[in-house]
Amino acid sequence: MIETDRYPLVQRLLHWLIVILVLGVLAIGMTLGFLGFDGVKETFGGAATNALYAYHKTFGVMILALMILRLGLRVSLGAPPYRPPLATSEHVASRVVHGLFYVALVAMPVIGWLATAAGGYPVQFFGWTLPGLIGKDQAQSETLFFVHGVVGWAILGLIVLHVAGALRHWLVKRDRVMARMSLFG
Ligand code: HEM
């Protein structure tokens, strides 16, 4: 049970590290999704295209590992109490958005991993190639990449809701909710 009204430093560090990684992976993913392989290659050249795919996969797998660690800490340590307590509507809204974040940020890399493997492409993690876990199946790969795209938009929607909520607490209500996850102050 956490005694203060802030998350322990390790959980705050994990939160902001995952923010940076998710924004980077989303930006690269959207670029790959909008332009497609040929469009990316035409725009950025062959070497940069390979690097963008490799970075997307590597940082995506890192998000999966960090999210599993984060989920373990959240379950074992719990969350600090809100002081003063949130209104019921705020409590429900934040629980739903935070819950969906956990599900989406674990599911998204797993779907990307399986889609990549089913397409016959390497699951790159820095200089290594991780096991594909499933066999090659073009139709399955296309379905999984479609779901990967849809969940990407859902994550973007969650980010908008989450940031709007945080800004409301920070700038309008001026309570201590932002301090719970802040690295400063
Ligand atoms: C939280 C982690 C991840 C996020 C937020 C994310 C996000 C995205 C997004 C938004 C797209 C564009 C989809 C579209 O519009 O069609 C994309 C494409 C892609 N993702 Fe991910 N991704 C993640 C993890 C992964 C992982 C772990 C892998 C593989 C190991 C992966 C492989 C790919 C590939 C190969 C594409 C390009 C698909 C294409 O060329 O059509 N992703 N990703």
From TrEMBL:
<keyword id="KW-0408">Iron</keyword>
<comment type="similarity">
    <text>Belongs to the cytochrome b561 family.</text>
</comment>
<dbReference type="Pfam" id="PF01292">
    <property type="entry name" value="Ni_hydr_CYTB"/>
</dbReference>
<keyword id="KW-0472">Membrane</keyword>
<dbReference type="GO" id="GO:0009055">
    <property type="term" value="F:electron transfer activity"/>
</dbReference>
<feature type="domain" description="Cytochrome b561 bacterial/Ni-hydrogenase">
    <location>
        <begin position="6"/>
        <end position="181"/>
    </location>
</feature>
<keyword id="KW-1133">Transmembrane helix</keyword>
<keyword id="KW-1003">Cell membrane</keyword>
<keyword id="KW-0249">Electron transport</keyword>
<dbReference type="GO" id="GO:0020037">
    <property type="term" value="F:heme binding"/>
</dbReference>
<dbReference type="GO" id="GO:0022904">
    <property type="term" value="P:respiratory electron transport chain"/>
</dbReference>
<keyword id="KW-0479">Metal-binding</keyword>
<keyword id="KW-0813">Transport</keyword>
<protein>
    <submittedName>
        <fullName>Cytochrome B</fullName>
    </submittedName>
</protein>
<feature type="transmembrane region" description="Helical">
    <location>
        <begin position="12"/>
        <end position="34"/>
    </location>
</feature>
<dbReference type="InterPro" id="IPR016174">
    <property type="entry name" value="Di-haem_cyt_TM"/>
</dbReference>
<dbReference type="InterPro" id="IPR052168">
    <property type="entry name" value="Cytochrome_b561_oxidase"/>
</dbReference>
<keyword id="KW-0614">Plasmid</keyword>
<dbReference type="GO" id="GO:0005886">
    <property type="term" value="C:plasma membrane"/>
</dbReference>
<keyword id="KW-0349">Heme</keyword>
<feature type="transmembrane region" description="Helical">
    <location>
        <begin position="100"/>
        <end position="123"/>
    </location>
</feature>
<keyword id="KW-0812">Transmembrane</keyword>
<feature type="transmembrane region" description="Helical">
    <location>
        <begin position="54"/>
        <end position="73"/>
    </location>
</feature>
<dbReference type="InterPro" id="IPR011577">
    <property type="entry name" value="Cyt_b561_bac/Ni-Hgenase"/>
</dbReference>
<feature type="transmembrane region" description="Helical">
    <location>
        <begin position="143"/>
        <end position="171"/>
    </location>
</feature>
<dbReference type="GO" id="GO:0046872">
    <property type="term" value="F:metal ion binding"/>
</dbReference>
